[in-house]
């Protein structure tokens, strides 16, 4: 085998030394190599050089790359491509194979770096570090033209061997520097006695280091301090607890905190959460419950069961004495109303008393015994009887309204039997017989509808079809307006119901009934009474409603009887008023006499009607509102002053009050027809009926009036009183009119009879009137002195008049009767 190898070498050497007789061009050589490659005679890969004049195998390329790395330690692929003369693509491809085969190499950012290079760099960094004490990785990375992460990854395995230092937060430090900073951290940490945020401490140390090293020093990161601090804590050189990495609580503070909490709790049997938060305990309940398992957490404090026992004893005593107590006053000042409420609910005596209805808790912290509350309620209930109903005329309860409707319906049904008018079942009124022989002539001019509430304020007059000026339809807007008034009325009634008794009235009564609150040292009794009032007021309102309902039930029959009497009296008096009004037409041509007659009628008959009606409406209004009314005097003899009429009118419900005030104003006027119109409106609003004077009723009334006057004239013995009656009777005989004339209008009335009487009768009348005026003048001028002779003259004149009385009576009675 060796001989063959030597033979081959000899032949190869001979072939190399032999001179070729044929020279090939470069082109031919290239073609020849390609042909050999195609024929697989050359079965390995060949790489072209950049110049194209040479071939190189991949193995040779890798060998040359390795040789360059051995010489330099760090080679750029671009530089290799230029040095070797091979395209960069082939260099990168073979470089990756070289790096993958040798774990001591790395390919970073187009460069191949060997571990020997990093060892050299580490030695250089170490020499520099020993001179500067600290170096920033960013500075080293900039110098080496690599990333900081790469520098850190390379230096970490060499720390403590090639590099004598410590890497923290992107900085390299020498052991001496680390020892100095550790001493600073240790001293600062041991000087802390209260919970501290370590980031504040690290900022202080950073400023201190900058002052020590000047502007040339590199800023130390807080993480470096934190790392040193964590090591000190782990080694036990600094004692305390660390929360969330930066909240440091020294052991000395924790000990003092625990002693403070234990001392306060043991001495006072409670501790407030605010106190614990001031001590740095952010979760008081979680802190206290494991330490004091028997304790009870409240809203703002943590208490010992002994405090509940103390409060329980005071509560039990208050319940036995039938008194009250404010639990806040027995508890520490830091306790609030919610704490008092919770601690009250935990007291055994309170729990048992509440189950047995022996106690009541109001306003979170106030406890009243049931006997105390019942006594106060009974006393206030008695005071409720003194409430005035004058200002509550519109307040009618729902059940009361129903009874009002029944009362009115009953009243109207009772009137249905009268011949003058009929009443339907729904309460609608129709005019009756205006003429005796024509009972069905004409239709009603309107329909009175009564709402379900039954209150006269809620009644609306709805016009219906008639012969004269009534429209066929009804305006929709008027209906809407009526509905809105009803709604507003109901809201007003509901508001007033809910305000009886009012809060102000109840507070005043409680202050008057419970003066012992101030005697017991309560600074502001209203703070307690307001809670008691809030508890009592709903009960008092229910009592008030029940009381009103009971009173109203009692008053329903009285109201019905009252309305019947008023209707009966009003029928008679209003017909007479219409009869007297007709006589006034005879004097319309004499303005002064007409005014005198109108005013006289207003001040006599009209005033009597108004006083009777006002008095009864006032009683009816009080009965309707649940007020107990004593039996009054006969309303026919009632005489009211203008002020009393106005006061009654204002006390009535709103719509009724307006019409009553119109009647009062009409009484002070000059026209009777104004009064009659106002009276009709008031009667209509009050649900009363006014009969219209027809000819049949007029004849009957005139006959009755004439008969009554005739009997009065026949029995009259006073000459002064006789003349007006004779004149009235003459007007009935001559004009069929019932004249009501005052004394100063008699002269004009007699003058109007001149054409209706013969001369002798007229002379008797005028002579008697002249003598009467003379007599009245003498009586008016008499002084009452004994020496005065006027008494003789008066007596003489009376005798003359008395002698003329038979002749005067004969004018109206006839000779035989006179």
TrEMBL record:
Organism for this UniProt entry: Hibiscus sabdariffa
Domain E3 UFM1-protein ligase 1-like positions: 563-693
Pfam families: E3_UFM1_ligase (PF09743), UFL1 (PF23659), UFL1_C (PF25041), WHD_UFL1_5th (PF25870)
Domain of life: Eukaryota
Chain ranges of the E3 UFM1-protein ligase 1-like N-terminal domain: 4-288
Region ranges (Disordered): 408-501
The keyword Disulfide bond is assigned to this record: no
Protein name per Swiss-Prot or TrEMBL: E3 UFM1-protein ligase 1 homolog
Compositionally biased spans, kind Basic and acidic residues: 427-436, 483-497
Domain E3 UFM1-protein ligase-like C-terminal: 698-811
Entry keyword annotation includes Transferase: yes
This protein's UniProt keywords: Transferase, Ubl conjugation pathway
UniProt record similarity statement: Belongs to the UFL1 family.
Biased composition (Polar residues): 416-426
């Amino acid at each position: 085998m060796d001989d063959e190898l030597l033979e081959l070498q000899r032949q190869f050497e001979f072939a190399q030394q032999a001179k070729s007789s044929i020279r090939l061009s470069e082109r031919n050589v290239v073609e020849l190599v390609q042909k050999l490659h195609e024929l697989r005679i050359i079965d390995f890969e060949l790489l072209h050089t950049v110049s194209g004049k040479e071939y190189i195998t991949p193995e040779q390329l890798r060998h040359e790359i390795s040789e360059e790395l051995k010489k330099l330690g760090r080679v750029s692929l671009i530089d290799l491509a230029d040095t070797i003369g091979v395209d960069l693509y082939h260099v990168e491809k073979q470089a990756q194979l070289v790096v993958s085969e040798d774990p001591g190499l790395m390919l970073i950012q187009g460069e191949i770096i060997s571990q020997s290079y990093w060892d050299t760099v580490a030695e250089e960094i170490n020499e520099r570090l020993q001179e500067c004490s600290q170096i920033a990785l960013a500075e080293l990375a900039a110098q080496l033209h690599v990333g900081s992460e790469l520098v850190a990854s390379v230096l970490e395995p060499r720390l403590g061997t090639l590099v004598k230092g410590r890497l923290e937060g992107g900085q390299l430090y020498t052991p001496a520097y680390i020892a100095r900073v550790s001493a600073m951290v240790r001293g600062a940490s041991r000087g802390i006695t209260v919970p501290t945020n370590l980031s504040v401490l690290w900022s202080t140390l950073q400023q201190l280091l900058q002052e020590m090293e000047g502007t040339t020093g590199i800023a130390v990161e807080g993480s470096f301090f934190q790392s040193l601090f964590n090591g000190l804590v782990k080694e036990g050189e600094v004692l305390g607890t660390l929360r969330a990495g930066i909240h440091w609580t020294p052991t000395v503070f924790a000990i003092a905190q625990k002693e403070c909490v234990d001392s306060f709790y043991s001495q006072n049997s409670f501790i407030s959460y605010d106190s614990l938060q001031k001590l740095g305990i952010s979760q008081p309940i979680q802190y206290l419950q494991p330490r004091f398992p028997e304790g009870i957490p409240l809203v703002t404090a943590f208490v010992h069961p002994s405090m509940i026992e103390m409060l329980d004893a005071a509560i039990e005593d208050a319940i036995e004495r039938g008194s009250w107590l404010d639990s806040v006053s027995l508890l520490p000042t830091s306790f609030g109303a919610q704490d008092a409420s919770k601690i009250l609910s935990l007291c055994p005596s309170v729990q048992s008393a509440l189950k047995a209805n022996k106690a009541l808790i109001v306003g979170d912290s106030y406890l009243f015994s049931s006997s105390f509350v019942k006594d106060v309620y009974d006393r206030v209930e008695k005071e409720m009887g003194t409430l005035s109903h004058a200002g509550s005329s519109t307040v009618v309860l729902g059940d009361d309204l129903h009874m009002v409707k029944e009362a009115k319906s009953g009243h109207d049904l009772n009137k249905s039997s009268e011949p003058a008018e009929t009443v339907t079942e729904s309460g609608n009124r129709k005019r009756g017989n205006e003429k005796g022989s024509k009972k069905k002539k004409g239709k009603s001019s309107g329909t009175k509808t009564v709402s379900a509430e039954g209150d006269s304020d809620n009644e609306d007059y709805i016009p219906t079809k008639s012969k004269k000026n009534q429209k066929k339809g009804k305006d929709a807007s008027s209906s809407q307006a009526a509905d809105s008034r009803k709604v507003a009325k109901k809201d007003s009634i509901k508001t007033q119901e809910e305000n009886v008794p009012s809060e102000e009235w109840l507070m005043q009564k409680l202050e008057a009934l419970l003066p012992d609150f101030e005697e017991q040292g309560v600074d502001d009794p209203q703070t307690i009474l307001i809670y008691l009032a809030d508890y009592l007021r709903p009960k008092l309102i229910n009592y008030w409603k029940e009381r009103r309902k009971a009173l109203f039930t009692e008053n329903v029959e009285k109201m019905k009887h009252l309305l019947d009497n008023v209707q009966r009296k009003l029928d008679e008096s209003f017909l007479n008023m219409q009869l007297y009004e007709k006589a006034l037409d005879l004097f319309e041509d004499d303005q002064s006499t007409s005014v005198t007659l109108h005013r006289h009628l207003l001040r006599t008959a009209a005033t009597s009607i108004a006083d009777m009606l006002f008095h009864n409406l006032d009683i009816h209004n009080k009965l309707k509102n649940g007020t107990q009314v004593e039996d009054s005097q006969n309303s026919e003899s009632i005489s009211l002053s203008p002020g009393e009429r106005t006061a009654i009118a204002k006390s009535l419900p709103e719509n009724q009050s307006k019409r009553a005030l119109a009647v009062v104003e009409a009484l002070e006027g000059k026209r009777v027809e104004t009064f009659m119109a106002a009276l009709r409106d008031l009667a209509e609003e009050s649900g009363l009926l006014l009969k219209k004077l027809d000819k049949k009723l007029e004849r009957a009334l005139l006959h009755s009036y004439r008969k009554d006057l005739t009997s009065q004239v026949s029995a009259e013995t006073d000459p002064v009183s006789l003349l007006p009656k004779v004149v009235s009777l003459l007007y009935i005989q001559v004009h069929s009119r019932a004249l009501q004339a005052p004394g100063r209008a008699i002269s004009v009335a007699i003058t109007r009879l001149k054409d209706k009487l013969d001369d002798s009768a007229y002379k008797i009348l005028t002579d008697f009137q002249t003598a009467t005026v003379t007599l009245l003048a003498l009586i008016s001028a008499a002084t009452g002195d004994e020496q005065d002779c006027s008494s003789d003259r008066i007596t003489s004149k009376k005798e003359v008049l008395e002698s003329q009385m038979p002749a005067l009576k004969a004018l109206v009675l006839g000779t035989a009767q006179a």
